[in-house]
Automatic annotation (TrEMBL), chains A, B:
This is Alpha-mannosidase. InterPro entries: Gal_mutarotase_sf_dom, GH38_C, Glyco_hydro/deAcase_b/a-brl, Glyco_hydro_38_C, Glyco_hydro_38_cen, Glyco_hydro_38_cen_sf, Glyco_hydro_38_N, Glyco_hydro_38_N_sf. Residues 1-19 form the signal peptide. GO terms for molecular function: alpha-mannosidase activity; carbohydrate binding; metal ion binding. It comes from Protea cynaroides. Residues 352-426 form the Glycoside hydrolase family 38 central domain. Keywords: Disulfide bond, Glycoprotein, Glycosidase, Hydrolase, Metal-binding, Signal, Zinc.
């Protein structure tokens, strides 16, 4: 192969010497006096869907779908180089990075040139085009940051445009946080409710200024363009290889010359779009899924269209980008309508509400959330230890997590083999991060962070499969002299107490704290259900028979400092008094009457023995005393055999009747009681098992559900929901979070933007829930928090409904082409997948719920990170420090602030993100300006410089604010004053945060960090 | 659009700086010690098939099939420029020229460089990959010449390789004439009989030296490679965009790395092919139909395969071309088996004999033959007049004719809309050529060829629709003083007499020769059948009602000098004696007994009145007296409902029973007699009408058949044949021509190359017929000549069968995807197509048939070209010359030589081809060396230089002979000495020709031509 450059060839340039060689004039810019048709060449490349991300990249598995992103990028670059008028926008950095790493320096130079000339522009710029319903906002920030960092580093560019063209509904957080706060000047997408779109086309309000945040108000507005139809070109202007669109045939020596016909088609399509659009600028999205595999096919036609349409002169056609389009819109000085809230739920037709995917693949959604939290903690520990260039790193996990935020990943709308691929990537990322975490904890425990962690001796083990009661390091048979060391790491910025539960074999154990004092602990016998799940899944997933099942959960309350750890030691209980307490067990009898009260602390739950169910919620401190019920039911998934052929499926929730699941008489209550917590076990039916936990020191109920395998022998797909029912008068109103951040008010059967025609009273009132959902009346707030993304609603006043699991038997014809019927297989025998998860219930007096939701929400997102080691004798304390905090020992973050990113960058600087947790007006005390002392966050380090950045840290905040376009709006009503933190004083280094504000900093240090021992 | 060059980018070159950027070593040459796998990148681009040639080129009509040749060429050139190791062969010049004309000078320069470096090589190099069964050899030469001229002119190259990979069987003429005589060093193709292939694989005789000509023997051998399977790559190595082949995934950072697996697959496929191939060289045809639409997809994979396979080292992989492969084979010094005859018929499985296409679309085949002849004559006239740079030209017709030689064009295996496109191209070409012919005749008649033809007054009209009895210029009502001038041009090199028939209105007309002498003429009433066909087709095709039908055919014997014309004048017969004779008409009665004799000259045909059919053939001169019958029958086309699902269709002839068509009793004989000819009209059945003509001065019978619309109301497709039956003992043996040139011996149910398993006794004995078919026994020869390509056989000793028309109701699954059910429509009412054609029968004493077949064969191919003008008074003779010859008046070509090309080239030189018409041993007198005096061919012109060229005139013959590879063969038997003409003496300028020799010359002149008047 030749090494060198070859002079290539403009296929449509240079001096015309033959009658059939035509020079196309494509250099046309905007013509203010005409209708400008902005042709925006783009390819929408799903980061996994029908094929895995790598299969899409290399073009493998084409029997499923012909798609190869490598071709897109190869051929687009060639096409752009051939004509400097041509433009292209690229979005998904997961693909771009794969391609970039394979290219030569020569290609790198050429592409950098294309980028600097504006021919190739990166928009959106995250690793993927994330989903907007099911990801957590921290994951959205992280995956965007990962992409933006790369673009900044390789090209010195900061994307200006949000491009969420395909996500199935649009969140408030996307608009203001992953939009305005990134410095984006506009946001574009295709999918909104069909009724909404019809009205917007009618009123020319497809383009608006979207103000997604109550708290940040006009300071985080973003110009938003909704496409008139979809993100593909107008009919007949799709020019992929082998496409059926009529090509412009302009060679007079060949048959079927059709230039005038095609120009007329173009003008007609342009005028039709102009008819629903304000100003004299319209955008044509010239591309769609995985197109531009041979980019020349598109550019050749667009060259001709631009040339002949402009010769015709009725409209003006130009190569453009969303940036150019945005600037052109801005230049018109038009006033735009203001849109608030969000664009959920999304229905593309009467019977097609895309609200099933809020829950689809709940195990995967849970896994992603667990990894998200782990990644946050692992980065902290990576920083404390010091980033090691040779690894292990969190980078693999970061990459995997970024990919699974894709709108066909965490959404659950991919094919099974692709879901498996995502899980594999997470698992690989986890394994590396686990190694990092273990070594960091060991390094910190051995106090070697300042001397280098190369020769640490301690090997920490962790238990990612605790949810199936599988934890080999805790299941060891402890003998006298050998004990189990448990490191409990707290990724939150506050000191924190929480109950740890680990499976143990012995029934005579003692738990000691880091000073050697025995502390209270409780043994809870493992239910048969848990043992069965454990043994089956260990065999199915690990391919081995687990050792004999542990008999007990050992529970004890642990405490850890902010960003720090504490150490507990479990040993054989040799003195009776110090041993853990075995739970008392009470099993109700069938037909028994009366009630039973559960809980030893402030919270008591009353159960009816006759009905075998929860009846009353009582908090003796807050004096809440409320009727409450909790029940299960399922929706029969529509099978698509009716007129419209629409089935309930991976995307769509289309119920065909609701069926209550009655607690069966043979399954009475079992109550376990002890000093740490009480548990109520309910075998609801053969495939639903539930444990309700009331911790003595907590004022909420934790419900662990085990749902599955959902039976489908009756040929009916089922979508299993639970209802928490009170007598509250909630007036059709409920609140759900936006990506775990802001709460958005929802009113049943109502949309603020248009007069809703209610066709699907259930599915059309479902919303995505990442943090929680709550109701309020004039006395109380009922809050439910979740451990992963689910769909939820309030279909009846006073009631909250969560969809926990779905198993369906029909594809819903939205492209995935596979039935959402998750299975687990062992030796080729498959059964439906079982889901185990938690949700958390609390009732507060009105006005007091936010504190719990925000604080416990953080705890649910960031549980203790627990690691295990074995101690032989008492040598641990001699060689290890028992407690550690990454912050100043005297310091803790304010109650209304969380540290959502602490990460050492490759250059040794630190990326820090602080998030105010409260919205304006959300809490009387905490919806106020907060301040954080940076110096306290980094004890023993000298901060030399603090630079406030945009949310994705790819540009200085001040620079970003300077460039931001400020759009004229039609809004006239007075706006509440926006509270934001002021500039950071370079001496005091105190960071202020207004409600809901997230501030992002790059911090430079001038001295070395010493880890700090903390008293506990 | 930028005007200028851009530096582009080797996607797989330059210095490696990142771990994932791989430099592939693709520069590998041949390694003599290893098995060499020659990867030959190619695209097989049908010049029309499912889509028209222009649709394929621009990529239109992709709903039928995604295919765009423009993409192939664009992307291949880019891919070749990116790596100088890469190679590509291109074949079809019709496409390449379309592309070339659209490119800039810059592209031209780059492509010329690629060609000169051998990266891009033209093989075959004709305008299309012609069919080998149904085209006439003159058309094959012309279409190849057209492509080769272009390649020579633009690139200075002469193709070395025959590449008939897709044609459905292979002709002897292809091998020796369109192979060796072009200077080709090898010929490759895929399609041969499945039994033949099996044996050849077994015996390693897929590669042979083919000696296609008895007469030219070893002087025209060609190395021939038959592919082991088809012309696509081995399974799993097809790499088109979106293809399902496993791609080489060599990025260790992505999943599914598979380099070793793919290398193993490669080696296994190579060894498997080596197992059926002699020497250590095998060829992989890396491409197939319309592939390389984005060439990068192929080259990227081949780069990797070459790189990793050679690293592996078991076999040697290289980018190659058939030329490199041929040279490598030659270098091995291996001896090859010798193959003679041809590769017809082709069957790809037991029940799939591709012998239907020999007849498919007989009207189109007839039209092509008519245009071929017209083109030959028009070029002569273009030369006589002098080529005019501003046209009209024959070039459009040349281009159309070249395209219709394609193996899915004249073969009749294209879709109907494509057949229509071909016909339209021919019609457009004809219209321009007709104008040229008219002006040339006018120019010559006005004696202005030496002074310039710019201001000619005479407007000649022509009658291309004479076959439907439609000729407006002859149908005029002649009044006293007005007469019809008829110019009769003879394109043959001999003086010639033939009967002219034109429709006239008047029944009192006189025909006068150029000296004003009344000559004998005859009026034959138009049959009702003819009138019906005329009126229907004129309306259907011309969209107008024809004027009142003429009542008569006027027939008279015309005579014209070699390459010259004569003039006849038809006027109202004012003197009884000079008027044309009305034919006597006799219609036999049903039930009549006895015989009737037809014919006034040497030939008499006897008909049985009782049976209404021919019974005896008598020639009073040669004393032949033979029983003869002629009948019709049809084969029921298999409908594919049986086990193998094989139907008879456009390609395949698969009869399901044979059914005689009995002459119906209500349709007795009608006999027309007169001084010029006798006609026997037979209404065989409602859809077969036949006229047998016996000319007084000819010794053969001409049968004009009118077949159609074939009824298919019974759900049965029908293939209509006629049988000519004698009592001859022909011992299973018959002879059919090869593309109108050599006759090849056929033996029923026998193949010379293998032990034939007879599965299809009818279809498997069908052969293509372009010139004729004959039988012989020890006394007689029965010869039948045809006016177009048809399929024929001798299924029974003494009998000749011709398939005249086919109408089928099922697709035969060979790709066209359309039923061969030709229709003609008028006002949306469609009926099956009617075919009108002629064949010619003669019986000679043994040894005397060749003279007739060759001479009359030439006359059938080149009928008189007739043009009409109107004369007012007697002014014609005063302003026009009545006769003309392009040759010296004293000269005529020898009886065994034809001038098959006389064409003025753009540079003023003349291209001349002379063809010896006889094979060695074919005729006692004429299979001898012939000589032609060039000076006599060009009277009044000074020949300054005569250069003998290769057949396609793209290189000097001497040069070609010097370069020719001479292969070692296994043949040992003595060969007959080959007779070829010697070098042309530059002074005498006499050209000698041995049997079957065709010699091609470029002639330079140094003086101006004066047309010459001839006495007649």
């Amino acid at each position: 192969m030749e090494v060198g450059l070859v002079v290539v060839i403009l296929f449509a340039s240079f001096i015309c010497t033959r009658s059939e060689f035509i020079v196309y004039n494509t250099s046309q810019g905007i013509v203010p006096s005409k209708l400008n048709v902005h042709l925006v060449p783009h390819s929408h490349d799903d980061v996994g869907w029908l094929k895995t991300v790598d299969q899409y990249y290399v073009g493998a598995n084409n029997s499923i779908r012909g798609a190869c992103v490598q071709n897109v990028l190869d051929s687009v670059i060639q096409a752009l180089l051939a004509d400097k008028s041509r433009k292209f926008v690229y979005v998904e950095q997961a693909f771009f990075q794969r391609w970039w790493r394979q290219q030569s320096e020569t290609v790198h130079r050429a592409v950098k040139q294309l980028v600097s000339l504006g021919q190739l522009e990166f928009i959106n710029g995250g690793m993927c085009m994330h989903d907007e319903a099911t990801p957590h906002y921290i994951d959205m920030i992280d995956q965007t940051t990962l992409g933006h960092q790369f673009i900044k580093q390789e090209f010195g560019q900061t994307p200006r445009i949000g491009w969420q063209i395909d996500s199935f509904g649009h969140s408030a957080v996307q608009a203001y946080l992953l939009g305005a706060e990134l410095g984006f000047d506009s946001l574009f997408f295709a999918r909104i409710d069909y009724q909404d779109r019809a009205k917007r086309k009618d009123e020319k309000t497809l383009e608006v200024v979207w103000q997604g945040s109550k708290s940040l108000g006009s300071s985080s507005q973003i110009f938003t363009g909704i496409f008139p139809r979809h993100y593909d070109p107008p009919d007949g202007f799709t020019f992929e290889l082998n496409e059926e669109s009529l090509l412009v045939q302009d060679n007079i020596l060949l048959f079927d010359y059709n230039v005038q016909e095609r120009v007329n088609d173009f003008v007609a399509a342009a005028l039709s779009q102009a008819n629903v659009t304000r100003t004299n600028h319209i955008m044509w999205t010239m591309g769609t899924d995985f197109r531009y595999q041979y980019a020349n096919t598109w550019f050749r036609q667009m060259d001709k269209l631009i040339h002949y349409v402009n010769k015709d002169g009725r409209v003006n056609a130009l190569y453009s980008t969303p940036s150019i389009y945005t600037d052109a819109k801005y230049e018109t000085n038009e006033s735009w309508p203001v849109k608030s809230n969000d664009f959920f739920p999304y229905a593309n037709q009467e019977n097609a509400y895309w609200t099933g995917y809020f829950t689809s693949r709940p195990a995967f959604k849970g896994y992603v959330r667990m990894m998200s939290s782990y990644y946050l903690a692992a980065r902290q520990l990576e920083f404390f230890k010091g980033r090691n260039s040779s690894g292990p790193h969190t980078d693999t996990l970061a990459d995997a997590l970024s990919i699974v935020q894709h709108h066909d990943a965490i959404s659950g709308t991919q094919r099974q083999h692709v879901a498996d691929d995502y899980a594999k990537r997470l698992a690989m990322g986890y394994l590396e991060a686990e190694e990092l975490v273990a070594s960091s904890l060991a390094c910190l425990a051995e106090s070697k962070a300042n001397t280098g962690c190369g020769n640490i001796a301690t090997k920490f083990q962790q238990c990612p499969l605790l949810n199936i009661s599988y934890c080999p390091p805790s299941e060891v048979a402890l003998s006298h002299g050998k004990s189990l060391v448990i490191i409990v790491y707290n990724p939150l910025g506050w000191k924190r107490d929480d109950v740890i539960r680990i499976p143990v074999i012995s029934e005579l154990v003692t738990v000691r704290d880091s000073r050697g004092r025995a502390i209270e602990s409780q043994l809870l016998p493992l239910s048969n259900s848990s043992v069965g799940i454990r043994n089956y899944h260990v065999r199915a997933y690990l391919g081995k028979f687990p050792s004999d099942a542990p008999k007990y959960w050992l529970a004890f309350s642990a405490s850890a400092p902010p960003l720090g750890f504490n150490t507990y030691v479990v040993s054989i209980g040799d003195r009776a008094g110090a041993s853990s307490t075995r739970s008392t067990v009470y099993t109700s009898e069938v037909g028994e009457n009366g009630t039973i009260e559960v809980g030893r602390g402030n919270l008591k739950l009353n159960y009816s023995l006759e009905k075998g169910k929860l009846t009353q919620y009582v908090n003796s401190r807050s004096l809440v005393n409320s009727f409450i019920e909790q029940s299960y039911s399922f929706y029969a998934g529509n099978d698509g055999s009716d007129r419209d052929s629409q089935a309930s499926g991976a995307y769509i929730f289309l119920p065909n009747g609701s069926f209550p699941i009655k607690s069966e008489a043979q399954a009475p209550l079992t109550v376990l009681r002890g000093p740490v917590l009480d548990e109520v076990h309910q075998h609801i039916n053969p495939w639903i098992y539930q444990i309700t936990r009331v911790y003595n020191e907590k004022e909420h109920a934790e419900i662990e559900f085990t749902v599955g395998p959902i039976p489908v022998d009756d040929g009916i797909g089922k979508e299993v929901v639970t209802q928490i029912t009170t007598a509250m008068k909630t007036n059709r109103t409920f609140y759900t979070d936006s990506n775990g951040r802001d709460f958005v008010k929802r009113i049943r059967d109502y949309r603020s933007d248009w007069d809703l025609q209610v066709n699907q009273p259930v599915a059309g009132n479902y919303y995505p829930i990442n943090l929680g959902i709550y109701l309020e009346d004039n006395k109380m707030e009922l809050s439910v928090l979740v451990d992963r993304s689910v769909g939820g609603s309030s279909s009846v006043d006073g009631q909250i409904e969560l969809m926990l699991h779905r198993r369906l038997l029909h594809d819903d014809h939205r492209g995935v082409g596979e039935v959402l019927d998750e299975k687990i297989c062992f030796h080729d025998e498959c059964t439906g997948l079982t889901i185990k998860g938690n949700f958390f219930i609390r009732i507060d007096p009105i006005g007091e719920g936010a504190k719990w939701r925000r604080k416990v929400g953080q705890e649910i997102y960031s549980p203790f990170l627990v690691a295990f080691a074995e101690q032989d004798g008492d040598n641990w304390t001699s060689s290890h420090i028992p407690t550690f905090s990454g912050m100043d020992i005297s310091y803790s973050l304010p109650d209304n602030v969380a540290m959502i990113t602490l990460q050492e960058l490759e250059d040794g600087k630190v990326l820090l993100r602080l998030a105010h947790l409260y919205e304006i007006g959300e809490d009387e005390d905490l919806s106020t300006k907060a301040s954080v002392e940076l110096k306290k966050l980094f004890p023993n380090k000298e901060i030399s410089r603090v630079t406030e950045m945009s949310l994705s840290a790819n540009q200085e905040r001040a620079e970003m604010e300077k460039k931001r376009l400020r759009w004229k709006t039609e809004a006239s009503k007075e706006e509440t004053k926006v509270v934001r933190g002021g500039p950071v004083d370079p001496v005091k280094l105190t960071v202020e945060l207004g409600p809901m504000e997230i501030r992002t900093f790059i911090i430079n240090f001038s001295s070395i960090f010493f880890p700090h021992e903390v008293d506990s």
